Amino acid sequence: MKKIYLDYAASSPVDKKVLREMMPYLKKEFGNPSSVHYFGQRARAGIEKARQIVAKFLNCTPLEVVFTSGATEANNLAIRGMVQSLKQKIHIVTSQIEHESVLSPCQELERQGLAEVTYVPVDSEGVVKTEEVQKAIKENTALVSIMYANSEIGTIQPIAEIGALLKDRKILFHVDAVQAAQFLDCDVKKLGVDLLTLSSHKIYGPKGAGVLYIKEGVVLNPLLLGGGQEQGFRSGTENVASIVGMGRAVEEISPYGGSPAGRQIVQNIKIRQLRDKLIKEVLRRIEGTQLSGSKQKRLPNNVHIRFQGIAGSELATVLDQKGIAVSTGSACSEKTQEPSHVLLALGVSEDDAMSSVRLTLGKDTTLQEVEKAITILVATVAQLRKNRV
Ligand code: PLP
User: How far is the centre of ligand 1, averaged over its atoms, from the C-alpha of 72 (Å)?
Assistant: First the structure.
C-alpha cells in the first residue's frame, strides 16, 4: 500500500537538490570549520555560503544569522538569552497559542522570578489582535514574541502591524517564522522584527539545523558556552552538512536564486487549491465537521478539522492503518493526550478540541492523493461513528 503523507507541518522530506548539496560535507569536506587548514576552511566555506543565502532571504547581513540545532533552540536562545542578559526582572508579551518552545521558556522564567509574562488572547479564528498586544505592553516590557503562523491551525498573524506598533520603542520583537517561511515574506526590515526563528526540516531541509536572526546590536546571553562559534551566540562545532542543506533549502523557497522566478508562487497556488478541495469536500461530505482557524488568514497547506463525536487520536490511528499519515495537533504536543492549548484559546470546548485532526500538504502532494484521502476519511469517520452507537 502506497502511503499518503499529510503531515508536512511536522516534518518534510529532504529535497533531492538539498541532499546533493549536503553529501560532500558528510564525506570529503569533513573538516572542523574552526580549523585553519584546507579541510577546515572548505567546511567553513560551506557554512558561510549557507549564511549568505539565509541573509539574502531575510534581507539582513550574514553576521546577523546564527545557526542553531533547530527552532526549539533558536526560540530558547531568543527568549532566555534576552532575559538572562538583563539585570532586572522584565515583562514579556506573548500569545496563548505559541509553540511549546516559546511557552515553556516563558513559564520557566516566570517560575524563576526573572520575568513576568502576559499571554494575550486570540479571537475565535486564532488571530492575535495588534490592539491586544498594545494593551498588554507595560513600562518594563522588554520583549514581544508572536509566531508568524500557527503550527496547528495555520492562522497567519499581523506581524508587520505588530512590528510597526513596536517601532521606536525599547522592546525587542521576536517572531517564530517556522511554519510561515515557505509561504510568506520573511524580510525582517519590512516586518520590523529584531529576532526571527527558522527551522530547516519544515522546508525540505535536514533535521538538526535552525536559524535565529539576531539584529545587529541586540544583546543575548548564549545558552551554550564553549568555543565561541556563531559570533559567540552558539558554541559547539557546527553541524556542517545540515547547515549547508538548510542553506540550499532556503534558496529553494526564496523568491530568487535557486528557484526559477515564480516557481515558488506557482507551487503555493497548487498547494492552496488542493487544500481548498480537501476542506470543501470534507465539510460537504461529512456531517458534524468544522474547520478550526481562519478561512482567509490561513497557511496554504493547513487543514484542521473537528469531527464531532470522534476522538482525533483514534481517527489518526485508523487513518494511519489505512496508509494516511495525519496528526492530531503539533507533532511535539501529540503525545500529551490533552486538549490542545491552541484550540482551547479559540474558545473550542475540551471535547471538540479532542476530536480534531490536522492535515498538512506539501509540494509533493498530488490531486490523486487528496482525492484518495477524502474517500478514506469519509469511510473512516462513518465506520468510527457506527462503532460508537
Ligand atoms: N516553532 C514552531 C511554530 C513549530 O511548528 C516547531 C515544530 O513543530 C518548532 C518551533 C520547533 O522546531 P524544531 O523541530 O526545529 O525544534
Answer: 6
The secondary structure of 149-211 as a DSSP string is B-TTT-BBP-HHHHHHHHTTSS-EEEEE-TTTTTTS---HHHHT-SEEEEEGGGTTS-SS-EE
Q: Write down all domains in the chain, each with its CATH number in brackets.
A: 4-12+262-388 (3.90.1150.10), 16-253 (3.40.640.10)
Could you tell me the pLDDT band of residue 332, with boundaries at 50, 70 and 90? very low
Nearest to 358 by CA among 154, 179, 99: 154
What's the gap in Å between 251 CA and the centre of ligand 1? Answer: 20
Q: In what order do the strands lie in the sheet with 289-291?
A: 289-291, 302-307, 356-360
pLDDT in tens, 128-149: 999 999 999 999 999 999 999 9
Q: What is the pLDDT of residues 61-116, one digit of tens each?
A: 999 999 999 999 999 999 999 999 998 999 999 999 999 999 999 999 999 999 99
Q: Is the dihedral of CA 165, 168, 172, 177 positive or negative?
A: positive
Q: What are the φ and ψ backbone dihedral angles of 194, each rounded to 5 degrees?
A: -105, -25
| Strand ranges, E, within 181-301 | 195-199, 210-214, 289-291
Give nearest CA residue, ligand 1 atom 13.
Answer: 71
b/e sequence 236-257, b meaning 16+ C-beta within 10 Å: eebbbbbbbbbbbbbbbbbeee
Helices H, strands E: what count in the chain? 13, 12
Atom 10 (ligand 1) nearest CA: 71
The set of cell numbers assigned to 244 is 549547508
Whether 60 is catalytic is: no
Q: Measuring from each residue's beta carbon to the nearest atom of ligand 1, which residues come in under 6 Å? A: 70-72, 75, 99, 101, 147, 151, 176, 178-179, 199, 210, 330-332
Residues 6 or more apart whose CB falls under 8 angstroms from that of 371 comprise none
Q: What SS3 state is found at 63?
A: helix
Write out pLDDT tens, residues 148-175: 999 999 999 999 999 999 998 999 999 9
